[in-house]
Amino acid sequence: MNPIKSESKSQQKSSGEITDSESSGGPVSHQNQLLSPPDASGKSTALDRWLMRTMLQKAGNPEIEVVLWDESVISTASTPTKIRVKILNRSTLYKLLFDPSLYFGDGYSQGSIEVEGGLIAFNEAIDHCTHTSDTEGFYRDRFRRCLSWLKRNTIDAARSNIHHHYDIGNDFYRLWLDEQLAYTCAYFPEPDVSLEEAQIAKMDHVCRKVGLKPGDSVVEAGCGWGALAIHMAKHYGVKVRAFNISREQLAYARERARYEGLENQIEFVEDDWRNISGSYDSFVSVGMLEHVGLKNYEELGRVIARCQRPHGRGLIHSIGCNSPRMLDSWTTKRIFPGAHVPSLSEMMRIFEPQKFSVLDVENIRLHYALTLEHWLERYERELDQVRDMFDETFIRTWRLYLSASVAAFRAGSLQLFQVVFTNGANNEVPWTRAGLYQNAGQDR
Length: 444
Description:
Layout: H1 9-14, H2 21-24, H3 46-58, E1 65-67, E2 73-75, E3 84-87, H4 90-98, H5 100-110, E4 113-116, H6 119-130, H7 141-150, H8 155-166, H9 170-174, H10 195-209, E5 217-221, H11 227-236, E6 239-244, H12 247-260, E7 266-270, E8 280-286, H13 297-307, E9 308-320, H14 329-335, H15 344-351, E10 356-363, H16 365-381, H17 383-389, H18 392-411, E11 415-423, H19 434-437
Parallel strand pairs: 1-3, 5-6, 5-8, 6-7, 8-9
Antiparallel strand pairs: 1-2, 3-4, 9-11, 10-11
Helix pairs in contact: 4-5, 5-14, 5-18, 6-18, 10-11, 13-15, 16-18
């Protein structure tokens, strides 16, 4: 998944490099380096073309063209389109029949699939169709859902899954995240503010929602590189106990807390959320629920109920979807193993058994699309440094991941929910939402 740069990198460069235009929308040169050279597939057959056309129809007739290895063009687009996908050999086509998501992702990453017209535009075209089409059988979702229930997201499994994505090196993430290494959706008071400003605005937005005040105690489940914990302690005068199972992230967070002189206010704990203990005024989790596993939602609710004081407010910030579904197989296999993005009805499995009151639900989907656009732009800008760390397959994998994520949030196939909740008998709650916005930017 995360191959370090190989010794053959110089040979790859000499044969031609992948251009930035694949994600930005420009044409892709056929001189690009292919990591998996095409096989001798010969001429496409009538069966090959029928199968490709059938796949497009099952996907809802997206506005794209598919070009096979012999330059045959298959299209279900209603109007001329600049979005073209080139399948460079027959074996890739037949793999797509088995699992379109997984093998498109692998094919693109390995160089046996090329995209013209932009990866974001391609993924948007697909998402707009599959979002409204019944693709459950075609994408084998029923089978995958059954398999997912056989897998337990144990503490050991969670550690392995987190290591897969988050422990590939802080130096890599420093290249394209903001200065504080915030790796979750930012909040843009205005669309043209910088990524750094938007991440700070997101942290203030969270703090206002849970009503932090000096002297409060907060437990954070899944703290990333510590940006929110440090922000809460530094600007709101609270004490924070933050849990994480990524050693790379925790090492950075602890060093930054020492640098800020906040060691006495923040404790970074290398442990799973299931082992949270103590009593706190607020429970906060930003970007962790996706990794919890649907089967563990009720247990998460029990953990919150035992650690959050009766007057406290909690917040869960999570990627989600509008109705229950499986995350695509490429993302769950290559990017976020064990991930699940919940619908709001699924999230209620956390709150309802504990009789929590849900106070506020906000969907900031388009803020995540814009956040990802910033990340992708920075990633493309730093490709030379990424190449010094990893190979071309890794580069293409992460370009696809970031581009497809932009498209998913633009198209509405993914959402971003912030849910605020409290004990059902707690009357110490805001009378209106005015406090969320009237003092924005004046908290510090």
